[in-house]
Amino acid sequence: MKLHFLRSDRGASLVEFAIVAPVLIFLLVGTIEVSRYAYYSILAANAARAGVQYGAQNTTTALDSTGITNAARADGQNLAAWTITPNHLCSVSGAAPAQCAVSSASPPTNTIYYVKVQVAGTFKSLMNYPGIPNNVPVSGSAIMRVVSQ
Asked: Which of 50, 57, 137, 138 could pair covalently with 75 via S-S, beta carbons 3.0-4.6 A apart?
């Protein structure tokens, strides 16, 4: 009878589960956090793209910073903590686009206007992890040539 008691495996599964369960839970929560971060990164990039698409329609919409910001904010699901920065760029005679003052007058010859939108925010994790910051910056950027000039 005593020999049968020493060979019993009744509690082994429970001990193994108690050891493995915290690791599995940590992996599950970590996967959720990485997925949420990827979602916010994609959301920021898409919001920047929506703002740039609005501004690149013509020179009138390229000057409409409020409209660009509203288009980006609407596509970014109205996340209030995000900073949306529209910029006006121009290139003269094929040079690299640089910051320039855009006016409502007709552009000089050989000038190409661009609209650039940057969206930045902060991703807040659900839990505190040792060695990993609780707030991680998230940003997206897009640049597009103004179509009709």
From this structure: 50
Task: Let me know if residue 63 belongs to a domain.
Answer: yes
Amino acid at 16: E
Distance of CA 28 to the CA centre of its chain: 22
In a domain, 24, yes or no: yes
- pTM of model > 0.85: no
Question: How far is C-alpha 14 from the geometric centre of its chain's CA atoms?
Answer: 43
Domain count, the chain: 1
pLDDT tens for the chain, residues 1 to 149: 555 555 566 778 888 888 999 999 888 988 998 899 999 999 999 999 999 999 999 888 888 899 999 999 998 886 768 899 998 888 776 677 777 766 655 556 677 888 999 999 988 888 887 888 888 899 999 999 887 66
Q: Name the CA radius of gyration of the chain, rounded.
A: 26
Decide if 4 is inside a domain.
no
Can you tell me the distance from the alpha carbon of 38 to that of 79, in angstroms, rounded to the nearest whole number? Answer: 16
